[in-house]
């Protein structure tokens, strides 16, 4: 499985890489702009990510904006593929969750601190791992 981790805090990004080491080949981005560029390139090259872990509060472009642009890039690619995008964020307000889930079409939402068992359960739920 290919996974994109989008997190501006070094410790959080490294922790997610550690959590996913046994499950995925990971790439990382430190801001929403870079994440959209990586995601769009992967779709265009026919090697899309199966999983994206996306923070909301980031420099250059928020995770909410990046999420919407990622879904737009997918719509222009292979219609059979849709990445599992999990918001991994400290933002736990109803408004943030509704925007991500209903307006942005994220797959799921995890509030920090991220617990490995919760992340693994979501990967199983969406059949990324068995």
And the CATH topology? Rossmann fold
- Helices and strands, in order, run as EHEHEHEHEH
**What is the overall silhouette?**
globular
Count of runs of 4 or more consecutive helical residues: 5
Helix/sheet category: alpha/beta
Low-confidence stretches: none
Report on the structure:
- The chain is of the alpha/beta class and 130 residues long.
- Helix 2 packs parallel to helix 3.
- A five-stranded parallel beta sheet has the order 2-1-3-4-5, with helices on both faces.
- It is 44% helix and 18% strand.
- The model has no long low-confidence stretch (mean pLDDT 95).
- The longest helix has 13 residues, at 32-44.
- It has helices spanning 10-20, 32-44, 63-75, 94-103, 116-125; strands at residues 2-6, 25-29, 51-54, 84-89, 108-111.
- It has a single domain, classed as Response regulator (Rossmann fold), CATH 3.40.50.
Observed structural traits:
globular; alpha/beta; 130 residues; Rossmann fold
SSE arrangement:
Layout (H helix, E strand, L loop, with lengths): L1 E5 L3 H11 L4 E5 L2 H13 L6 E4 L8 H13 L8 E6 L4 H10 L4 E4 L4 H10 L5
Parallel strand pairs: 1-2, 1-3, 3-4, 4-5
Helix pairs in contact: 2-3
């Amino acid at each position: 499985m290919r996974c994109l981790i989008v997190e501006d805090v070094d410790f959080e990004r490294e922790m997610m890489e550690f959590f996913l080491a046994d499950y995925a080949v990971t790439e990382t981005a430190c801001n929403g702009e870079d994440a959209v560029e990586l995601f769009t390139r992967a779709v265009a090259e026919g090697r899309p990510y199966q999983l994206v872990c996306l923070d909301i509060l980031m420099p250059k472009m928020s995770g909410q904006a990046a999420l919407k642009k990622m879904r737009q890039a997918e719509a222009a690619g292979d219609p059979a593929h849709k990445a599992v995008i999990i918001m991994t964020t400290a933002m736990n307000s109803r408004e943030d969750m509704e925007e991500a889930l209903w307006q942005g079409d994220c797959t799921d939402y995890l509030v920090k601190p991220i617990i490995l068992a919760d992340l693994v359960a979501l990967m199983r739920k969406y059949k990324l791992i068995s």
